[in-house]
Design a protein that fits this description.
Blueprint (H helix, E strand, L loop, with lengths): L4 E3 L8 H10 L3 E4 L7 H15 L5 E3 L1 E3 L2 E2 L12 H10 L1 H21 L4 E2 L24 H17 L3 E7 L15 E2 L3 H6 L3 H5 L5 E4 L3 E2 L12 H11 L5 E6 L9 H11 L3 E4 L4 H10 L5 H11 L10 H11 L3
Parallel strand pairs: 1-2, 1-12, 2-3, 3-6, 6-7, 7-9, 8-10, 9-11, 11-12
Antiparallel strand pairs: 4-5
Helix pairs in contact: 3-4, 4-5, 4-12, 9-10
């Protein structure tokens, strides 16, 4: 039975040990990073390997936003701007900004599908504020909920048109974090009314997304002890109720230093809090084995959410690729 975990691997191909582990633990999906990427043929072979060891068309994820967060890079793949570039265009011409965001996401999706990747950790819905850590920075589409919501919706539509599932992140909002959650646990002390009007608003606007990734952030006005990922209060009261997100909810990477405790404890806390899926990215076998001890077969509710998300995987719309690239380039200088 499929477990609630998503794993990475160490290299360009799967080792025999990885094949055994994935076959026995039966994760819901996989994620690839720059360390797993050399050229298109190699990536296709790797994504085929992943699916062969679990025996089904398991989802394969990637962080391909554009800008500094891009795993597929030249010379084999095109370079795309960060989200803020679309926001700059939108500020001058909303229609051009929306078109650029949609086309850019569609082009990214087409490149992903070409190598067997069918889930992208995009769009970023975080709303940065002055003085926040630059971990979000120009990855954000803009500095207002309205701009972020509009451009994120366009990007989500583009990803889906390209045959790839989007993941909205980092729910319910990472924009106010004063530290990088890869390194430390951010604590946001903003009042709930302000959070609802700003940070949470883009997620509410895109609550129909198939998948969402949590923020490893404490919101002291809601739960002063636990980051969103491991907070039953944040997941139930904010993500599910106030925001209205009904899709499959996954943790951000369990190996990030914002989380404390063993990997067994991190996994259990995330799932007990209400995450449907847990994400472990670095391919460390010892850590993955610890995650697997607490990862569980998807509950009926989580399975229904995950299946509903996967049902949105479709073949890419047939397009004239050169025309698509030309239209995009006329709006955004690559």
């Amino acid at each position: 039975m499929t477990s609630s975990a998503i794993y990475g691997c160490l290299g360009l191909t799967l080792t025999e040990a990885e094949k055994r582990f994935f076959g026995e633990s039966d994760p819901w999906g996989f994620i690839i990073f720059a360390r797993n990427i050399d050229n298109p043929d190699q990536v296709r072979a790797l994504t085929d390997e992943f699916r062969a060891v679990v025996g089904w068309n398991a989802p394969i994820l990637i962080d391909q936003e554009g800008g500094r967060v891009a795993r597929l890079r030249p010379p084999h793949w095109r370079s795309y701007p960060p989200g803020r570039r679309y926001g700059d265009i939108y500020a001058t011409s909303p229609s051009d900004g929306l078109t650029a965001a949609r086309l850019g996401a569609q082009l990214i999706a087409l490149e992903l599908r070409d190598v067997g990747v069918d889930v992208d950790c995009l769009p970023v819905l975080d709303v940065p504020v002055p003085g926040a850590h630059d971990v979000i920075g120009d990855r954000a589409y803009g500095e207002t909920p309205e701009t972020v919501s509009a451009l994120a919706r366009a990007a989500m539509e583009g990803v889906l048109t390209g045959g790839v599932l989007p993941i909205i992140k980092h729910i319910p909002g990472h924009g106010r974090a004063g530290v990088d959650s890869h390194e430390k646990l951010p604590i946001v002390d903003t009042d709930r009314k302000t959070l609802s009007a700003t940070d949470f608003a883009p997620f509410a606007a895109l609550a129909d997304a198939p998948l969402a990734m949590t923020a490893h952030v404490i919101y002291s006005a809601i739960d002063g002890a636990n980051p969103a990922t491991t907070s039953p209060t944040v997941i139930s009261e904010i993500i599910r109720d106030e925001i209205g997100f009904s899709g499959a909810l996954m943790s951000d990477d369990l190996s990030m230093k914002a989380l404390g405790g063993s990997f067994e404890e991190r996994t259990k806390a995330s799932l007990d809090a209400g995450c449907d899926l847990v994400l472990h990215c670095n391919g460390d076998m010892e850590e993955m084995e610890a995650v697997a001890k607490e990862a569980r077969t998807l509950s009926s509710t989580s399975l229904a959410r995950a299946d509903q998300a996967l049902a949105m995987r479709t073949d890419p719309e047939r397009v004239d690729l050169e025309d698509l690239i030309h239209r995009f380039s006329s709006l955004v200088s690559l």
